[in-house]
């Protein structure tokens, strides 16, 4: 597949736009706090628990400490884990694929204990609880 000069220029413009929004100049793993620390070109440090990111949860400290920043500063790579994160997505609070995020956010919502949820559970309990699943034939 041949890439035209115009396509190359458009791709470079998109990358420049992404870099302007925020790119990493360094990254490290803070073992004591269990957090990844990303220094952005703006002087801001972005930190997040490794357990929140797809591909990093449950990984040993020595593998989490081996982080590479892409030449453009838009990606973080953990070679020993074969895990990658996109810096602009991290800035927006996205720590994995859409499917992975939905699974983890749904699990958090399921653990939530709001007064409305407690009241609904009590009411359902008075009605006999959750209906039994029927065996489909």
Annotate the secondary structure layout.
Elements: H1 5-21, E1 24-30, E2 35-40, E3 45-49, H2 61-64, E4 68-69, E5 75-78, E6 83-86, H3 87-91, H4 98-111, H5 115-126
Antiparallel strand pairs: 1-2, 2-3, 4-5, 5-6
Describe, in plain words, how this protein is organized in 3D:
The chain has 137 residues and is α+β, with helices and mostly antiparallel strands. The protein has helices at residues 5-21, 61-64, 87-91, 98-111, 115-126, and strands at residues 24-30, 35-40, 45-49, 68-69, 75-78, 83-86. A three-stranded antiparallel sheet has the order 1-2-3. Strands 4-5-6 form a three-stranded antiparallel sheet. Strand 5 (75-78) and strand 6 form a beta hairpin. It is elongated, with a radius of gyration of 21 Å. The model has no long low-confidence stretch (mean pLDDT 82).
- Kindly state the percentage of residues in helix: 25-40%
Q: From the structure provided, what is the oligomeric state, counting identical versus distinct chains?
A: single chain
Q: What is the H/E string?
A: HEEEHEEEHHH
How many strand elements?
6
* Side-by-side strand order of the widest sheet: 1-2-3
Major sheet: 3 strands, antiparallel
State the separation between the terminal residues, measured CA to CA.
Answer: 52 Å
Mean pLDDT: 82
Question: Helix- and strand-based class?
Answer: alpha+beta
User: What form results from the Cα inertia axes?
Assistant: elongated
- The percentage of residues in β strands lies in 15-25%
Q: Give me the Rg, rounded.
A: 21 Å
Low-confidence stretches: none
Number of helices: 5
